[in-house]
Structures are given as structure tokens and as C-alpha cells.
Amino acid sequence: IRESEGAAEEALQLRRFAACATARTRWYGFAYFEAARALGRSGEALPLMEERFRRYGGRSAEPASTLFRAYERLDRISDGLAILERALEQRPDDGELLVFASRTLASVGLRERAEALLAAAVGKTRPTLLSRAHADQAIRDGDFDRAFSLWRDLVADEPLDLSGQRTFAGVLAERGGIGAAVAHLREQTARFPGNHGLQKLLYQWASQEEPDAGDAELLRVIEIDPNDAWARRERAERLMQAGRLAEAEAELEAARTIAPLDPAGRAMRGHWLLQSGRLVEARDALADSLRREI
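^ that's the sequence the OP posted. Answer follows.
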């Protein structure tokens, strides 16, 4: 709430407090790191992530996975992998950690070690986590028939798992083209008409199927959640492309009200100013967006 009101510093401190108070909850720690990074203060947040791992890494897999993701954001993959190995030494029977480390190592090409960790996780975590790891590996191997079979079952079991639906749509597109992904997502949004995430996913794929398509799907995203700043910016971009600058400005203002500190909103404002012929203001807006992004 404070962040949406423009109180970035206070919001950041509140996120830091939550990260410290809930050392075993992944979302709070990484949310603090991401907020600090957006303000160009990742150097301030990283030591806290490292301290959380030192203090609580033996009690939970969360500090290790969060610290790895922070290192990953900073392109320090080697440091992140070293943390995972240390975490595995401390918690060799943590099924969730074994699967997380396996999927991570597989993604960077360490296939043999990844398979060993996944085998060690059998019987120590939920079967669906293991299935997801095997399904991801099938995609990396280019075996889309196997990936289709695995992800079809996972999505059937957990239809509201957005990351699963996103991955399955990609598999469908690889096997049968974008139309196959769109058809599946239309079925899912008809089944769950008020689900914001599924509707957004449908829009993203429908707009790929045809460049001028997707307006109805995007308007439905906004109807379900008028406070989706991303959807408002997306709508503004479409209006700009159509030359409807006054309507685009209204959408940009709505997005700015929702997320006043978002660099993407400032960048879009810069492009709107450029298209409106206000070159000096456009330069300043784009420069400000770039500073915030860095």
C-alpha cells in the first residue's frame, strides 16, 4: 500500500522487516530484494539475504533458494551454485531443496549432478514436484511429446497453477502452433472466467497469433482487475500504435496511479511524449526510467 502511494523508502523498510521476521517464507525475502534492486540498492539488500542463509540455512530450504535467486539476478551464477551446494550439505534430505537444486543445475547444463539430486528426492517430497522437474527436463531435451504428456497431467491436476499453464501453453505451441495454445487457454478461461492470471495468459498468446488481435482479451483482463498496471500500459501501447494518444494518456495515468515507481511506466510515458512531439520531456522521462531500471 505504501509503495503504491509513492512512499518508496517506507515500503522498502517494511519489506525488510517482513523478510527478517519471516525467515522461512520465500516470498518476503525475495520481494524485499527485488524492491531494493528496483531502487538501485541491491548492494544493501544482498547482505541481508546472505545473513538469512547463515542464520537459518540449516533450518529451512528457503534462505538458500532466495539467496540463489538474488545472485542469479545479479548474474553471479557461480556464487549461487556454491550456496546451493552448501545448503545441500546442511539439509541432504530436504526434498524441496533437492528438487530446486536439481532443476537449477539442469538449467545450467550440469545434467549428471541434477539427475542424481532428483533421484535422491524420491520419497522426500510431493510427487508433483518430481513430475515438474521431469517435465522441465523433457523440454530442455526437446522431447515435446514427453513434455506434453507430463504437463497435460500436471495441468489437469492443478488447473489454477499459472506457471504450469504457461509452460503447457508453450509446449502446445511447439507441437501444434500458437493456435493450439490459444485454443487450450480459451477452454481454461471459459472454465474459470474470473481468473485474472489465465485471462492475461490468453491475451499474451492471442496477441501473438495475430498482431492486431487481442483487444477483447486485454479489455477482459482489465475488467477482472482494473488495478493491473501492466495491462493498463499494454492497453496504452496498443492505443498509441493506433494513434489514439488521448486515450493512451488516460491509460498511462491510470497505470502511474497504480504503480508510481515502476520504471516501465516511466519508459512508456517517455514514448508517449516522443510520439506527441514533446522531445525534451520525452528525453527526461526515458532517462529517469533508465536510471531507475539500473
